[in-house]
């Protein structure tokens, strides 16, 4: 199983980035997918989640109105479009796949995690 996150980088405040997470070794089309992030010295936190068929999406309050999660089951890939980036969005971003019970914000829902991609927002 592999979840390969990419698309991170250095961006100025107010800018945009699009993260991708390509999955292999799982039946991607059945998986709930989520994005989390972890800033230095902080706990990993939920950012966004999407159901297997993209019928429902969920966002942390910090992401609402600025971030959009989407998926392409034909490409086994989940995306996170991030706009109007702020300094406080600086973190390592992780994608995760899961089938367990629970809310999308709960890390217990997820079975597999990607390696993370660094997002750095500068002033």
How would you explain this protein's 3D organization?
- The mean pLDDT is 97.
- It is built from no helices and 11 strands.
- It has strands spanning 2-6, 9-12, 17-24, 32-38, 45-50, 57-59, 67-72, 77-82, 91-98, 112-113, 117-122.
- A hairpin with a 6-residue loop joins β4 (32-38) and β5 (45-50).
- It is mainly beta.
- Strands 2, 4, 5, 6, 9, 10 and 11 form a 7-stranded mixed sheet that branches. A 4-stranded antiparallel sheet has the order 1-3-8-7, with no helix packed on it.
Brief overview, please?
The protein has 123 residues and is mostly beta strands.
What's the layout of helices and strands?
Blueprint: E1 2-6, E2 9-12, E3 17-24, E4 32-38, E5 45-50, E6 57-59, E7 67-72, E8 77-82, E9 91-98, E10 112-113, E11 117-122
Parallel strand pairs: 2-11
Antiparallel strand pairs: 1-3, 3-8, 4-5, 4-9, 5-6, 7-8, 9-10, 9-11
Q: What is the β-strand count?
A: 11
Structural class: mainly beta
What do the pLDDT scores average to? Answer: 97
Radius of gyration: 13 Å
Distance between the termini: 37 Å
Low-pLDDT residue spans: none
Estimate what percentage of residues fall within beta strands: over 45%
Shape: globular
Order of helices and strands: EEEEEEEEEEE
**Tally of DSSP helical segments:** 0
């Amino acid at each position: 199983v592999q979840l390969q996150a990419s698309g991170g980088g250095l961006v100025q405040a107010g800018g945009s980035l699009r993260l991708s997470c390509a999955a292999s070794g799982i039946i991607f089309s059945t998986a709930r997918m989520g994005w989390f992030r972890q800033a230095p010295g902080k706990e990993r936190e939920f950012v966004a989640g999407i159901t297997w068929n993209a019928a429902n999406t969920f966002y942390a309050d910090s992401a609402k109105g600025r971030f959009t999660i989407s998926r392409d089951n034909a490409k086994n890939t989940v995306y996170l479009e991030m706009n109007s980036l702020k300094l406080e969005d600086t973190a390592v971003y992780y994608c995760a796949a899961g089938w367990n019970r629970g809310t999308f914000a709960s890390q217990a829902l997820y079975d597999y995690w990607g390696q993370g991609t660094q997002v750095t927002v500068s002033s």
